[in-house]
Amino acid sequence: MKTFYRLSQALSEAAVKWVRPALASLQQEYAVEYKKHPLDTDPFPTVEDFLKAVSQSKTMTITAEIDKQILNRSRSKTMGQLLGLIKTYRSYPQYRNEKTLANLEKLITTGGVVEMPIVYRLENGEFRIMSGNTRMDIAFMHGTNPTVIILDLRKTVKSKLAKSKVR
Q1: What is the pLDDT of residues 28-75, one digit of tens each?
Q2: Using an 8 Å Cβ cutoff, are 100 and 92 in contact?
Q3: What does the alpha-carbon distance between residue 105 and residue 141 come to, in Å, rounded to a whole number?
Q4: Which CA distances in Å does 84 have to 48, 77, 134, 139, 142?
C-alpha cells in the first residue's frame, strides 16, 4: 500500500501545470495560426479582439474521447511520427525541431509549466484545433489530459452580428 501511495504521490507531483499563454505567445499565435490559417469568417480582425476573446474564454480538460471530436488534430502516437509531422512545417527547423520537441516532452513528463493549446468551438458547434497540436500529442502520448482554452466562436460571431445590426 505504501508503494502505491508513493507512486500516486510522485505522479501527482509530476503533473504538468497548464497555464494560459503569455501575451507574446498569444500575439504570435494570432500572427501565425490565426492570420495564416484563416477561418470562413473573421471574428478577430485585430490582435486586440483576439486577446480579449482569449482572456474571456473558458478552459476545458480534454480526454482522449473528446479529442476524437477535434478537427485538424494529428493524433501522433510516437515522437518519431510527431517529428515527421513538424518537419513539414515552415517553422522547421528554426522554431520547431528535435530539441524543442525533446524540451516540450521533458516539461510534460516532469511536471513543468506548459502553455495551454487553443481550440475553436466553431459556429456549427464542432471543435477545431487552432494552436497546440504538438503539445496535445505529447500530453496524450504520456497519459496526460491537456487543458485547453476553448475559444467559442459561436458567441463572438453572434456578438458581432448583433453590433452590426445596431449600427
Answers
A1: 999 999 998 889 889 999 999 999 999 999 999 999 999 999 999 999
A2: no
A3: 9
A4: 34, 12, 12, 17, 19
User: Which residues are CB-contacts of 157 (< 8 A; sequence separation ≥ 6)?
Assistant: 41, 43, 123
Long-range Cβ pairs for the range 52-55 (8 Å, 24+)? 53/151, 53/156, 54/20, 54/21, 54/26, 54/118, 54/149, 54/151
Q: Give the CA distances from residue 53 to residues 1, 45, 107, in Å, rounded to whole numbers and listed in that order.
A: 47, 12, 27
Place of cell 452580428: 161
Give the whole-angstrom CA distance, residue 104 versus residue 31: 22
The H or E element that residue 6 is part of is: helix 2-13
The C-alpha cell that represents 62 in the structure block: 480534454
Residue 28 to residue 37: CA distance in whole angstroms: 13
Ramachandran sector of residue 75 (left: φ over 0; alpha: ψ -120 to 50; beta: rest) = left
**Per-residue model confidence as pLDDT tens digits over 128-165:** 999 999 999 999 999 999 999 999 999 775 544 444 44
User: C-alpha grid cell for residue 69?
Assistant: 471530436
